[in-house]
């Protein structure tokens, strides 16, 4: 179970190999890789800068991961989130979950990415032809996270 | 008390962190935000709409009725946009 907050890029294949190497009980791994898009709200984006809250970021990601482990039978989980200046096509985030069963891997990966979008302290600033602007949080992200809230 | 600002709150206020001496009557997050507004016109502008100002005390998300004390690390920021 690993959380990494880093400026540098990551190698998805190497991370997958490290996660599964020697663990023959894993039946499946679900991977989500977030990329920087070149368009947002109809405007072209030439770069994106991610700010974070060192300390709290790691703590929140670890708490989110612990929640996923409590809800699903996971063999392993990995969250890598980058910060700093990124360009279109660059990888921003990797979430990977491994389980004996595919449903647990799919659902926990979906849960993790939805929850980190609303709980992990990162903020994006886009560079556009009109200048730099902070990305506003979307209600749809809150709605996506809310569906994982347990009733009661 | 150590106060941290992030994203557009930081750019509007002009500093990333500040250390403040808390008045005795400021005992929760809501009162703290109201008191911070009185520190400068930039603070007042950045904190004008408290519905978009989120707060973490000692690196945990908290509601506005959460207590605060002199030894706490308090961060103010807009809704997060990672992922």
UniProtKB/TrEMBL annotation, chain A:
PANTHER family according to UniProt: MOLYBDOPTERIN SYNTHASE RELATED
Cited InterPro entries: MoaE_sf, Mopterin_biosynth_MoaE
Assigned protein family: Belongs to the MoaE family.
Organism ancestry: Bacteria, Pseudomonadati, Pseudomonadota, Alphaproteobacteria, Rhodospirillales
Catalytic activity, EC: 2.8.1.12
GO molecular function terms noted in the UniProt entry: molybdopterin synthase activity
Region annotated Disordered, chain positions: 131-152
Pathway: Cofactor biosynthesis; molybdopterin biosynthesis
Function comment: Converts molybdopterin precursor Z into molybdopterin. This requires the incorporation of two sulfur atoms into precursor Z to generate a dithiolene group. The sulfur is provided by MoaD.
Keywords: Molybdenum cofactor biosynthesis, Transferase
GO biological process: Mo-molybdopterin cofactor biosynthetic process
Catalytic function, reaction form: 2 [molybdopterin-synthase sulfur-carrier protein]-C-terminal-Gly-aminoethanethioate + cyclic pyranopterin phosphate + H2O = molybdopterin + 2 [molybdopterin-synthase sulfur-carrier protein]-C-terminal Gly-Gly + 2 H(+)
Residue spans of biased composition, Basic and acidic residues class: 131-141
Gene3D superfamilies given in the database record: Molybdopterin biosynthesis MoaE subunit (3.90.1170.40)
Listed name of the protein: Molybdopterin synthase catalytic subunit
Subunit-level organization: Heterotetramer of 2 MoaD subunits and 2 MoaE subunits. Also stable as homodimer. The enzyme changes between these two forms during catalysis.
Annotated signal peptide: none
One of the Pfam families matching this protein, by short name: MoaE
UniProtKB/TrEMBL annotation, chain B:
InterPro entries named among the record's database cross-references: Beta-grasp_dom_sf, MOCS2A, Mopterin_synth/thiamin_S_b, ThiS/MoaD-like
Gene Ontology BP annotations: Mo-molybdopterin cofactor biosynthetic process
Cellular component, GO annotation: molybdopterin adenylyltransferase complex
Matching CDD domains: Ubl_MoaD
GO function term, MF aspect, one: nucleotide binding
Swiss-Prot/TrEMBL keywords: Nucleotide-binding
Keyword Chloroplast: no
Protein family membership: Belongs to the MoaD family.
Listed name of the protein: Molybdopterin synthase sulfur carrier subunit
Originating species: Azospirillum brasilense
Organism taxonomic ancestry: Bacteria, Pseudomonadati, Pseudomonadota, Alphaproteobacteria, Rhodospirillales
């Amino acid at each position: 179970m690993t959380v990494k907050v880093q400026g540098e890029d990551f190698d998805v294949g190497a991370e997958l190999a490290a996660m599964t190497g020697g663990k023959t009980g894993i039946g499946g791994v679900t991977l989500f890789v977030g990329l920087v898009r070149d368009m947002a709200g109809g405007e072209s984006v030439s770069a994106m800068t991610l700010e974070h809250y060192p300390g709290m970021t790691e703590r929140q990601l670890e708490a989110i991961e612990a929640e996923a482990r409590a809800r699903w039978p996971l063999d392993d989980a990995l969250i890598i989130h980058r910060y700093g200046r990124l360009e279109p096509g660059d990888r921003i985030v990797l979430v990977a979950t491994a389980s004996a069963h595919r449903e647990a891997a799919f659902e926990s990966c979906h849960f993790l990415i939805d929850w980190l979008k609303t709980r992990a302290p990162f903020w994006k600033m886009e560079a556009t032809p009109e200048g730099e602007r902070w990305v506003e949080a979307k209600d749809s992200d809150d709605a996506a996270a809310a569906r994982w809230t347990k009733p009661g | 008390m150590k106060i941290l600002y992030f994203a557009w709150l930081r750019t509007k206020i002009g500093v990333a962190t500040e250390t403040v001496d808390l008045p005795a009557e400021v005992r929760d997050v809501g009162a703290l935000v109201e008191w911070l507004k009185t520190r400068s016109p930039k603070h007042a502008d950045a904190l004008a709409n408290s519905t978009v100002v989120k707060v973490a005390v000692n690196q945990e998300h908290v509601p506005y009725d959460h207590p605060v004390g002199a030894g706490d690390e308090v961060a103010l920021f807009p809704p997060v946009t990672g992922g």
